[in-house]
UniProtKB/TrEMBL annotation, chain A:
Protein name as annotated: ABC-2 type transport system permease protein
Keyword terms: Membrane, Transmembrane, Transmembrane helix
Pfam families: DUF5687 (PF18940)
Residue stretches spanning the membrane: 21-49, 107-131, 137-162, 169-187, 207-228, 277-295, 301-321, 351-369, 375-401, 422-442, 448-473
High-level lineage: Bacteria, Pseudomonadati, Bacteroidota, Flavobacteriia, Flavobacteriales
Top-level taxon of the source organism: Bacteria
From TrEMBL, chain B:
Chain ranges passing through the membrane: none
Name listed for the protein in its UniProt record: ABC-2 type transport system ATP-binding protein
PANTHER family assigned to the protein according to its UniProt record, in alphabetical order: ABC TRANSPORTER ATP-BINDING PROTEIN ALBC-RELATED
Keyword tags: ATP-binding, Nucleotide-binding, Transport
One family name in Pfam for this protein: ABC_tran
Domain ABC transporter residues, every copy: 9-238
GO terms for MF: ATP binding; ATP hydrolysis activity
PROSITE patterns: ABC_TRANSPORTER_1, ABC_TRANSPORTER_2
Domain of life, source organism: Bacteria
InterPro entries per UniProt: AAA+_ATPase, ABC_transporter-like_ATP-bd, ABC_transporter-like_CS, ABC_Transporter_VariousFunc, P-loop_NTPase
Amino acid sequence: MNKLFVFLEKKRLLRNKNQDMNTVLTVFKWLAIVYFGLMFLLLGIGGYFSIEKAGLGMGSPIQVISRFWMYYMVAEMMMRFMLQKLPTASIKPLLVLPIPKLKIVKFYVSSSFVSAFNFVQLLFIIPFTIVCLSKGYSIIGVLAWVVAVYLCVCTMHFVNILIESYKSVFIAVIVVFGSLAAIQYFNLFDSTEYTQYLLYSVYEYPVLVLAYALILAASIWLTIRYYVTNMYMDDLLKTKVEVGTTQEMKWLDGFGTYASFLKNDLRLIMRNKRARTTVLMSILFMFYGFLVLTPGHNGEYPMFMMIFVAFFVSGGFLMMFGQYVPSWDSSYYPLMMTQNITYKNYLKSKWLIIALGTAISMLGAVLYINKSMELVYLILAMGMFNIGVNGYIVLWGGAYLKSPVDLTANKNVFGDKNAFNLRVMLISLPKLFLPVIFYYIGAAICGFWGGVVTLAIVGIIGMFFQAPVFKFIEKIYKKEKYSTLDAFKSK
Amino acid sequence: MLLNLSNMIVVNNLVKSYGQQTVLNIPSLEITKGQSVGLVGNNGAGKTTFFSLLLDLIQPSQGNISSKGNVVNETEEWKKYTGSFFDDSFLIGYLTPEEYFYFVGELRGMNRADIESYLNEYGNFFNGEVLKQRKYLRDFSKGNQKKVGIIAAFMGNPELVVLDEPFANLDPTTQLRLKELVKQKMQSRETTIIISSHDLQHTYEVSDRIIALDKGEVQKDVMTTDITFEALEAFFQI
């Protein structure tokens, strides 16, 4: 039976459209895996010695790791949440075949486990164990401890699936992370003082490893149960019929010809979970600065980080939503291509929503007034750059992206739920490099203000060049039209 | 009918092939303004391919189609007077039917009042199952979705209406109403209607002209006044 599933999976991957993009993704994925693999390996071999050398006064290296394990878990959880792909499958044809449901679910859940996210850690764990054992720690203690560490890693895999499936798990994870962050941020007390025992006691009482095994078993059981109970056509196709109310949105009529498109895009965002998530994410990006900005020793923020933050604060919407233009319309692209709209107006309306979203994101600058006025100016300048230059680039790139967005995907338990993944990161890179280059050109001439003014001026110039730019983009869209239509057909 | 300059559609050496396989080959075909044409044929005969070419959704391998003198893959002029409905990829799932009609109507240059009176006029077509249902289009049944698409295709008095398999999935009552609608449009002679169907009976009833495609080629092209239904049916019997 499993052979059949493996066969189906293989065919699905091989016959997937959009092969070029996938090849690029695979290359980057493996680069990342190799990078992290090496890092883990180095830490595994040298970690013990460098912790000992640092002399933190927190006891043995095992104790030190136990102490900071919480932070590692938080970091890994975030990486997983953003980058790990969850199991997807088109389950409908299998439902009517004589295969027990449990078997289908077990296969897909276990195949999801075969992911670099779950194995790369072994590169740290195994050498570290060897070093510890050679240093004469209790054999049973060390073994139980590393098994517990790995069980935690495995548990996170299933928690990551459950986050998407159960609201309560999602909220629980947020609460735990939030309180950890709050304790840390306000310097209330050193929480690691207490949390270290969660892991370290396994070393002292090896039997406790069973508790970790139990937690993993529970998370596996919950995951399987979730899929089994949700494997009905209703759940697969639509969870519930939403109450739809006609919204007129007359306040948008001022935009003339583009009004009806803007209305539709707003409805798209409000009524589709996938689109809603991306917009929520772009709001979260407004707070990105609080996460990454730490003042250097002279009390100022490093310039490079500020540029980064300015890009993400003002460009969250551009990145999360704009990136997927015109893919958002993929399920009804033939309609858009046959209605009484010229390609140019269609593209312009898309640009307009990106520009409006970016303009609103620029308001995020207000959040940082107390932190650094320089950052506020940077965000505003970066916003103008994003509207005047990156807005076009996003549209231009969209002509080639051609990956259909299945708006109903979120309703499907096996559907692709990730709104933010490696793909989005990759295609965002050029949009990030450009403003960095322009800033540094300006900064080389006139310092900080030179950089800010250059960004703003380039952005404003970009806005004035709408007509020729759209002519160019339209040409590309027209050339790509047929293959886009074809690609959007395959969901 | 010999010298009819008011041609709506002119097909010129049209060939569509995928690799070695030619799926459509129509050397020439003319469709007069105001004519109602039924395109019939078995699966794979090339009906949807022809429609997709007509609406510039796929590219011809050779030749072209012009609509009112506009070559469809060269200009976008034809979009102004063409209404069409194929399948649910012509519907926006997250809109209510009303919002969808407003969207399409506005694009066709209708104002609020026009759209409302249009919907009133065709209200009975929906059998009370579509308007004011407080549901999004994606949650409607296939048949009701189709009703929305068909009615939207006729919005703003388009000069050309292209419907792919409109009778499939429709309940018997709506099939009758659709036939009424098409006949009514036929009488005014202002709208050219091209309908594809597997169903000979329906197509025969609502068409001035029947074009039978087989393996991508025109096999039969007759006026319904010149052929009996039985004769047409005999053509498909193998």
